[in-house]
Write a structure and sequence with these properties.
The protein has a 12-stranded antiparallel barrel with strand order 3-4-5-6-7-8-9-10-11-12-13-14. The chain has a two-stranded parallel sheet with strand order 1-2. The protein is built from 5 helices and 14 strands. By secondary structure, the chain is an alpha+beta fold. Helix 3 crosses helix 4.
Length: 431
């Protein structure tokens, strides 16, 4: 019984030993296979890395090679990439390693990311963008220069440019003048005297206007006119004046709406020297005889057409104060001043229209209408000047001046109506 037990134990030990040896041998064989596969994988990846390294080196050394353009151009499906892989004919590869590597890279993109491919080689051929005459690599000649030393950094400086901001100038100055010879007609009852004749006339008009381009306007105009005449029939005077005017118009306006302005207008008018008639010692007018001063509060409307041919303003002063002064006392009654006084004043309303119409490049019409009434007396002056430019510095003027004043002396023929006219030719200049 003991011997049977011993044989059984020995048999089990033998079986266990054989089984252990077999397992040890199997594990050893599996380990060798795994190591060999790992080494093969490393060799494969090393070859791939070497291939990539060679391609990268080639790209660096031949960066100007035209064969690489397909890698940097917009992704396009080229026939050669798929043709080499699908062709069964031998010899389609190996002619150009660079081209084969590029085709292989493009094919991987076509298979993995077909959504990135937008165009095809056929479309490019139809568009005519491919050149078939290039059969060898295109290299650019790069000129090498010596390495330039880096520029030292300099501290940032402030801008050296100086900008001048011009202060806006809201003032506008202009004027015109002329010296002319004229033929003159004056009615016998003209309130300042004078007679029909040939004479010489000088005129100067100055303007200084302020406009802040918002709401305020201040217009100033000074008109000076002086004319002399001689007459063979006059045995008393060698020469005398027949045109004599000093007039200042100042108008301050505050814009109400569009072209409408609230205005305060001042007009002052007198003459330079004595007003005489032929063969007559009597002085009909003189400096400050009379002096007309008018101050009015009202509205002003600016007129200007799109082509700027018609321009000017119309002023209506509902409340107007008129002051008249005569330095020569003996002339007081002639200018409507009653009693033993040198001045008179009254209140009323005034209308002033000052317009300029450029009829053509050579003809211009300037008109000024001034009407004042105190509701007891009325005075209307209407000055019309037609200017014809013969050349830049030569012009002809026709002046028509009807006037109504019921405070002056009454004439049997014309009543309170007065009239003056002249035509002249001479030099003119505007600035």
């Amino acid at each position: 019984m003991k011997r049977r037990y011993i044989y059984t134990v020995l048999a089990l030990l033998f079986v266990a030993t054989v089984s252990a040896q077999h397992r040890h041998k199997t594990v050893k064989n599996d380990t060798a296979l795994l190591v060999r596969a790992y080494i093969d994988s490393l060799n494969i990846y090393r070859h791939r890395l070497d291939s990539v390294s060679r391609i990268a080196s080639s790209l660096r050394q031949e960066s100007n090679d035209g064969r690489y353009y397909r890698l940097f151009a917009p992704l396009t499906f080229y026939h050669s990439a798929a043709g080499k892989r699908l062709s069964i004919a031998p010899g389609n590869t190996g002619h150009d390693n660079v081209v084969d590597a590029i085709d292989e890279a493009l094919l991987r993109v076509y298979l993995n990311r077909p959504d990135l491919v937008k165009d095809s080689e056929s479309q490019l051929e139809r568009a005519g963008t491919l050149r078939n005459d290039i059969d060898r690599p295109v290299k650019q000649e790069v000129e090498l220069v010596e390495k330039v030393a880096p520029t030292p950094e300099e501290p940032e400086l402030l801008p050296t440019d100086v900008f001048f901001i011009k202060k806006p100038n809201f003032w506008n100055f202009k004027g015109d003048s002329y010296l002319q010879f004229l033929q003159n007609y004056v009615s016998n009852n003209w309130y300042k005297g004078g007679e029909s004749n040939y004479s010489m006339l000088a005129n100067l008009t100055l303007e200084a206007n302020y406009d802040n381009k918002q709401r305020v306007k201040w217009e100033n105009k000074l008109e000076m006119k002086l004319g002399f005449q001689t007459s063979r029939d006059d045995t008393v005077h060698k020469f005398k004046t027949d045109n004599d005017l000093i007039r200042l118009t100042s108008k301050l306006g505050l814009q109400a709406h569009n072209n409408w302005y609230y205005t305060l207008q001042l007009q002052a008018e007198s003459r330079f020297t004595q007003g005489l008639k032929s063969n007559d010692h009597y002085v009909y007018s003189d400096f400050m005889s009379p002096l007309n001063l008018n101050l009015g509060l009202g509205f002003d409307y600016k007129i200007k057409t799109k082509d700027s041919r018609l321009s000017g303003s119309v002023n209506l002063s509902f409340l107007s104060f008129n002051f008249k002064y005569v330095d020569r006392k003996n002339l007081a009654s002639r200018y409507g001043i009653k009693g033993d006084h040198r001045s008179t004043e009254d209140f009323g309303s005034q209308l002033t229209a000052d317009l300029s119409w450029k009829i053509s490049d050579q003809v211009r019409w300037k008109t000024r209408l001034n009407a004042y009434t105190s509701y007891h007396r009325a005075q209307v002056d209407w000055e019309n000047t037609i200017m014809v430019n013969v050349s830049k510095y030569i012009s002809t003027n026709i002046f028509l001046y009807p006037r109504f004043d019921d405070s002056a002396n009454y004439d049997d023929k014309l009543g309170y109506l007065q009239f003056k006219e002249y035509m002249s030719l001479g030099f003119s200049y505007s600035f």
